[in-house]
Design brief:
The chain has helices at 17-34, 50-59, 109-119; strands at 3-6, 9-15, 40-46, 65-71, 74-75, 78-79, 86-87, 97-105, 125-133, 146-150, 156-157, 173-176. It is α/β, with parallel strands linked by helices and 179 residues long. It has one domain: Rossmann fold (3-Layer(aba) Sandwich), CATH 3.40.50. Strands 7-4-3-8-9-10 form a six-stranded mixed beta sheet, sandwiched between helices. A four-stranded antiparallel beta sheet has the order 1-2-12-11. A two-stranded antiparallel sheet has the order 5-6. Strand 8 (97-105), helix 3 (109-119) and strand 9 (125-133) form a beta-alpha-beta unit. Bound molecules: inosinic acid and magnesium ion.
């Protein structure tokens, strides 16, 4: 599928299923090497990360623990920039390594808020993995440790990312078409 329609908008392929899978395999190996011998807790940020998380953890060749938490900060096409809720922060992460997994880092407000919450629980080390990174929209200056693809500041859907709740199921990533 080259073009898809979700509600009132048209999107076109931006990253193919193959490109995404190849990149996730590389990230998984890199994470495995970086955390070998450590207690690694992979924390997926719902809903967007569930597809990336599922493929990423299967590409990591060391045993890990999986947790999920949920926040909300986005409506329609624009980030509201406000995190309203966090549900499910794992209690037992003191002294362990945490890898936060996001579908996309845009302004960085969501991930920054979460990092602050997790740091209070005294992990040994925290790192971030995000399939996509809108570098030009990022408002912070710490590194995103594992980035699948840096992308321009344009709206995308698929592979876990939604437009107004729909489109997370598409196995590739599609970019908004400006008519
Ligand atoms: P941030 O707090 O601005 O970094 O926003 C991060 C969240 O906004 C992500 O976890 C996504 O849920 C959502 N988001 C940001 N950009 C896009 C996009 O292009 N498509 C779909 N969701 C997006
Ligand atoms: Mg999200």
């Amino acid at each position: 599928m080259k073009k898809i329609r979700i509600k009132d908008k048209w999107f076109e392929t931006y990253l193919s299923e193959n490109q995404i899978q190849e990149r996730i395999k590389q990230l998984g190996l890199q994470i495995g090497n970086d955390f070998r011998g450590e207690d690694l807790v992979i924390v997926g940020v719902l809903n967007g990360s569930f597809i990336f998380m599922a493929d990423l953890v299967r590409a990591i060749p060391i045993p890990v623990t999986c947790e999920f938490l949920k926040i909300s900060s986005y409506s329609g096409l624009e980030s509201t920039g406000k995190v309203t809720e966090v549900i499910g922060i794992p209690a037992s992460i003191a002294g362990k390594c945490i890898l936060l997994v996001e579908d996309i880092v845009d302004t960085g407000k969501s991930i920054s808020y979460l990092l602050n919450q997790l740091i209070d629980l005294q992990p040994k080390r925290t790192a971030i993995a995000s399939l996509l990174f809108k570098k030009d929209a990022f408002e912070f200056n710490y590194p995103i440790d594992y980035v699948g693809f840096e992308i321009p500041n344009k709206f995308v859907v698929g592979f876990g990312l939604d437009y107004d709740g729909e489109g997370r199921n598409f196995p590739a990533i599609y970019q908004l078409r400006i008519p």
